[in-house]
Design a protein that fits this description.
The chain is an alpha+beta fold. Helices cover 45% and strands 18% of the residues. Strands 2-1-5-6 form a four-stranded antiparallel β-sheet. The chain is rod-shaped, with a radius of gyration of 39 Å. The structure holds zinc ion. The site of zinc ion has 8 residues, from helix 3.
Length: 186
């Protein structure tokens, strides 16, 4: 995650809780200005094998302004912290473990669960819309073509019949009209 994004995320932290390891009860919590006791920073290179910066939460244990410079202030993976924060993308509020949010920071995942579901829904709807649009377009096209073809063929048939009829001799026509009605008799 970029530094600016991390800053935004840090501003959106509402509450940090520390739980009791055994019974999960809250032993301490920090809100508002107290959250300044926490920081999110790159850890020294000796901890990272890759070039990708590795971020960790720091807690100001020793009450120093430069507390991020002290290794002992790094919150290890084995911790009992929960974080309540507002998603920087969709503003929905979540309570997650500190490790969960740290994983997102290190993997550059900005979207929360709600964002992700919304994106998927949008993508599915877009997909369905495209499918429906194309299939309905095809149906309409086919229907129109069919109707036109049918109309042409019927007209052709009538005209052909008329021509053929006129080609018959008058005796045939007279006989025909004895058995059938004339157009103007309808
Ligand atoms: Zn979100």
């Amino acid at each position: 995650m970029e530094e600016n994004t991390i800053m935004l995320l840090k501003k959106n932290i509402i509450k940090i809780e520390k739980n009791n390891k055994e019974n999960k009860s809250i032993v301490n919590f920090w809100e508002g200005g107290e959250l300044d006791l926490f920081s999110i920073n790159k850890i020294p290179h000796k901890y990272s094998n890759t070039k990708v910066p590795l971020y960790r939460f720091f807690f100001n244990n020793n009450n120093c302004s430069n507390f991020i410079d002290y290794e002992e202030n790094i919150i290890t993976r084995n911790n009992q912290y929960n974080i309540t924060y507002k998603c920087i993308n969709c503003n929905s509020i979540h309570k997650v473990t500190l490790n969960n949010i740290l994983r997102k920071i290190n993997r550059n995942i900005i979207n929360c669960r709600i964002c992700k579901e919304y994106e998927e829904l949008k993508r599915n709807n877009q997909c369905n819309y495209m499918l429906n649009y194309h299939s309905s377009k095809n149906i309409n096209k086919n229907n129109d073509n069919n109707i036109i073809i049918k109309q042409i063929s019927l007209l052709d048939k009538l005209n052909n019949d008329k021509i053929k009829f006129h080609e018959y001799d008058s005796d045939f026509k007279d006989n025909y009209f004895k058995r059938n009605m004339h157009n103007n008799e309808f």
